[in-house]
Amino acid sequence: MKKRSWTIADDIAIAGLHAESKDRSVDLSYTDWIKALRNYLRMTQAELAERAHLPQSHLAQIEAGKIDLQVGTLKRIFEGLSCDLVIQPLPRKPLSEVLRGRARSVASKRLKQTMGTMALENQAPEKELFKRLLEKRTDDVLNDPRERLWNKKDG
User: Fold this and answer.
1) pLDDT in tens, 108-137
2) Residues 139, 104: Cα–Cα separation, whole Å
3) Sequence-distant (≥ 6) Cβ neighbours of residue 83 within 8 angstroms
4) Kind and range of the H or E element at 13?
5) Among 25, 41, 98, 129, which lies 20 to 30 A Cα-Cα from 2?
């Protein structure tokens, strides 16, 4: 499979993802949303099932939370409720922090290997110097697009 290049559209999409962007005042599951919207629209399970092209018994199991849905089925249900289904990633924390953390982990691992050798030769730097070196190495890792940050052994 050919590797796809990063585009300006990718930059814009990633920039629009914010950990704080989700309104946490309403935190309903998809089953709660289905029931709430169906009831608001004064629709029976049978009517929604027909609109979503599903058996009513299947919709009842979905609303009861007994079935793990596929996205296509969920989309049909929300279309039956005259709604669009939007699936969007919601970062747990800013992605820039995740990226810098991984780069710092890679830089720290390399720096500690070097420091181990220097310690054997009684040349280990002071704590403050180590911190500055770590930040410099982290920046170097971030600025090199060839750097691999997600090796299997690194977690």
Assistant:
1) 888 887 776 555 455 555 778 888 889 999
2) 8
3) 37
4) helix 8-15
5) 98
Place of tokens 């299997």: 152
List, in order, residues 6 or more apart from 59 with CB less than 8 Å away.
45, 48, 49, 52, 77
List, as one string, the DSSP characters of 76-139. Answer: HHHHHTT---------SS-HHHHHHHHHHHHHHHHHHHHHHHHHHTT-PPPHHHHHHHHHHHHH
Tokens matching residue 48: 């929604």
Which 3 state secondary structure label does DSSP give 27? Answer: coil
Q: Token pair for residue 119?
A: 């310690």
Which H or E run contains 32?
A: helix 30-40
**Amino acid at the residue 37:** L
CA dist., res. 106 & res. 60, Å (int):
49
CA–CA dist 68, 53 (Å, integer): 17
pTM of the model: 0.63
Q: Count other Cβ atoms within 10 Å, centred on residue 124.
A: 15
Residue 11 clears pLDDT 80, i.e. is over it: no
Whether 67 contacts 61, CB under 8 Å: yes
